[in-house]
Amino acid sequence: xxxHFLLGLALTSSLCTAAIAQQPKMGGVxxxxxxxxxxxxxxxxxxxxxxxxxxxxxYEGLLRYDQKLVPQPGLADSWTISDDRKTYTFKLHPGVxxxxxxxxxxxxxxxxxxxxxxxxxxxxxNLVQLDKVEAPDDLTVVFTLxxxxxxxxxxxxxxxxxxxxxxxxxxxxxxxxxxxxxxxGTGPFMFxxxxxxxxxxxxxxxxxxxxxxxxxxxxxxxxIPDAAARSVAYETGKxxxxxxxxxxxxxxxxxxxxxxxxxxxxxxxFFSPMAWMWxxxxxxxxxxxxxxxxxxxxxxxxFARDVIWNGLGKVATGxxxxxxKFYTDDVRKYPFDSAKAKALLKExxxxxxxxxxxxxxxxxxxxxxxxxxxQNLQDVGINIETIATDVxxxxxxxxxxxxxxxxxxxxxxxxxxxxxxxxYVSSQIQxxxxxNNVEGYSNPEIDQLFADGAIATPDxxxxxxxxxxxxxxxEDVPIAWMLELQFPTITNxxxxxxxxxxxxxxxxxxxxxxxK
Length: 516
What we know:
The protein is an alpha+beta fold. The protein has helices spanning 2-18, 49-55, 106-119, 121-126, 166-169, 227-235, 252-256, 289-298, 301-308, 338-348, 364-379, 391-399, 416-419, 444-455, 459-476, 505-508; strands spanning 29-33, 63-65, 71-73, 76-81, 87-92, 130-137, 140-145, 189-195, 199-204, 218-222, 241-242, 261-264, 274-279, 313-315, 354-358, 383-386, 405-410, 479-485, 489-492, 495-496, 513-514.
C-alpha cells in the first residue's frame, strides 16, 4: 500500500508539473499553513524550519539550486572559478534594492558574511575554508579560499547564507535590533504584518529585480495550532497550500484524495531531513557510550516509520542520509533488540537514574513518537521523564544544553561538509545555538576526518574519509539516528509552479501563480 501511495505522489506531481506550461496569471492571494508558528523571522539569526519556510521568500541568497542541486542565479547573475579552485568571483545583479528602497551592493555581501559568522552556526561552519572576501566594486564579490573546498558553490542558498542589509544592522546588537521584528530583504515578497497566533502576511515586492515576478499579490501564512483544524482549513478552502509537515502523517492519504488536490514529494532535495534524538554526551548516563548504544537498540524505528510516520520515511543507518554524497551503510547496525539494550545498560552500570526527554513541539505526530519511544526505553529499564515545551522554550533548552534526550530533525544540504559535520565536530560546540553540536560530542579523530574530507580531492578520497567517519560515529552514537523523513506538499491544483527548486516552498512563491 505504501509503495502505491508513493507512486501516486510521483504521478500526481507529474500531472501538476505538466500544468506549468500554461501561461502564468497575475494577481491572487495564497493562503498557506505554517506549522508551528516561527519563533522569529530574522533568517540570519533563527534557522528553525518554519522560519526558513516563510523568510526564504523575504530574504535571498547569492544562488538558488534546482532539484538536482545545480546552482542557479540568485542575487548573483554569474560566477567564475579560478583554475586552482581557490578563488570564486561573483557578479551581482544590477539594480537590486532592499525592501526599504536602499540599494543592495557588494558591501552588503561582505557585511552579511561577517554577521553570519557570529549568528549562524551552519554558515560559520561552511566558511571555515574562507581566507578573505573582497568587493572590488559595487557589483563584484571575490571569495578567496585557504585551499580548494569541493562543496563551496553549495553554501549560498537563502537559508544557509541569507543576505542582510548592512545599513540596518551595522554597529548594532544583532540580537536586539528592532528590525528583527520587521524583516527587510531583497526577495519577491515583503513582510507586512504578523498577528501572533493567527497569521503572517507577506505582500508583493513591486520593485523585485526579476522582471515580471512575483505573480501573486499576497501570501497569508495561516497559524493553526490544531492539526485536525489544519486539515479542515484545507478541505473547506480556507488554505490552498499544506507544506510538508502541515498535517499529521496519518491524514495525508485521505487529504490527498480530495477533489482538485495535487501532492508532491519534491522540493526537499537540498534538505534531506533527518530525524534523531540528541543525547547529552557531557553528563549523566548518556555520557556513557554503552548507554547511548543501548538506546539505539531499545528504540523500534521500524514501528515509528510504519505506524507513526505512516510509511513516509526510511530507517536511518547513521549520521548521513542515504540521499546525500558519500553515504555508506557499511556500518554497525542497530536492529530493535531489547535484550541487547538491557545487556548494555547492565554493562554500563546504569542504576535507574532519571533521564529528561524533550519531544519536538511540532504537533501530534512528534508527541506520539515521543510516547512510543518513552515506552521503548522504559521497557528496557530506563527511567524517563517527559519535559513539555513550546517552540521558544525548546530552542532555549537545546541552546543551553538543558536536556538528556531531545528530539529534532535537521537538514543535510547535499554534502557532509555542509550539513553533517556541523553536528559532530568540536569546533561547532557553541552554547546558545540549536543546530550545531549541541550534544557535546568531541573526538579529535572525527574533527580531523571532517576537516580533511571537506578539502580532499578527488571524490574517491573524500568518500574514503567520510566512510571512516561514519563507521566511528555509528560506533560512538553521539546522537540516536531515527528516520530519513519524507514531507509531501499538498496544494489545491489551482496553485501552479510552486515547487521549482531543491528547497521547494521555502523559496517557491517567487514563481508561483494562481489559476483563478
